[in-house]
Design brief:
By secondary structure, the chain is an alpha+beta fold. It has a domain of about 130 residues. It contains eight helices and 15 strands. A six-stranded antiparallel sheet has the order 11-12-13-14-10-15, sandwiched between helices. A three-stranded antiparallel sheet has the order 5-6-7, covered by helices on one side. Strand 12 and strand 13 form a beta hairpin. Helix 1 crosses helix 3 and helix 3 crosses helix 4. It is globular, with a radius of gyration of 18 Å.
């Protein structure tokens, strides 16, 4: 039986299994109902998903925890000239990094160092933003249908952005501010399953926003699903979290925040 795709709305009879969170991030159980994502949208998703998983800090997440690719190979990718590979024997905590190190932070008086590789390759955040939007719309439909139905009509700009019909970049923030007040999206069994891969997905409603958070043990990504230019939310986080970072970096000027100090 044909059903409507929740992204493009087209009738389809797709039978492929859609992982709400990519399998390459360790998700085996959190799946979207067959047909709710059509084959054409699935093909578009695969293009930005590959970039998000190999050209952002997500490749570090996959490498550290030895999460294999769909083909069973160790994680690999590149961030700002550093080539990153997971351990060939899938040992957790073993990561190979090659390239010219630009910034190293020493841990106090010890001989240990923190290597800072950046969040996105060349500050290119769009593939990750699209991936998080894709995860958000599927997860809300699957696990929080009342929230999905409430905001469905306000998600058209998000859908156009995911599908490449609107290429204007969408701001995303890395910050843990406010995450503790957010609500888990999946049911408890899936929450526990995702925690095995050190991943959480959450949301919170505000007066004018629907904020989605994709959290790893290293970093929290937050994005407004409804508004591309939500200045109140942006300023609130940047004013309260000195470690917060806004991407793409030109949005600092858009929101009159002045120049960034660094490129962490």
């Amino acid at each position: 039986m044909d059903v409507n795709c929740i992204v493009c709305h087209d009738l389809n009879s797709a039978i492929s299994i859609e992982h709400i969170i990519p399998e390459s991030l360790g998700n085996k159980l959190y799946l979207c109902q067959k047909g709710k994502i059509c084959d054409r949208c699935n093909q578009k998703f695969s293009k930005f998903e590959k970039k998000a998983l190999t050209l952002s800090t997500l490749v570090m997440q996959r490498s550290r925890y030895s999460i294999p690719s769909k083909k069973g190979k160790p994680a690999s990718g590149e961030i700002n000239g550093l080539k990153i590979n997971g351990d060939q024997n899938f040992r957790k905590g073993f990561v190979e990094i090659r390239g010219k190190v630009k910034l190293i932070k020493k841990q106090g008086s010890t001989d240990l160092y923190d290597l800072i590789v950046g969040t996105f390759d060349r500050d290119e955040s769009t593939p990750c933003t699209k991936l998080f939007f894709k995860i958000a719309i599927e997860a809300l439909y699957h696990s929080k249908i009342e929230i999905y139905n409430k905001y469905d009509g306000q998600l058209e700009n998000l859908r156009r952005f995911i599908l490449g019909l609107d290429n204007k970049e969408w701001p995303i923030i890395t910050s843990s501010f406010g995450v503790n007040e957010m609500i888990d999206i999946p049911e408890e069994s899936i929450i526990n399953h995702l925690k095995e891969s050190h991943i959480e997905i959450k949301f919170i409603e505000t007066f004018s926003s629907l904020i989605f958070c994709f959290k790893t043990d290293e970093i929290c990504f937050q994005v407004d699903l409804l508004n591309r230019l939500n200045s109140d939310w942006i300023h609130n986080i940047l004013n309260n979290d000195p470690f917060a970072r806004l991407y793409p970096i030109y949005y600092y000027k858009v929101f009159n925040r002045g120049p960034r100090i660094d490129k962490q």
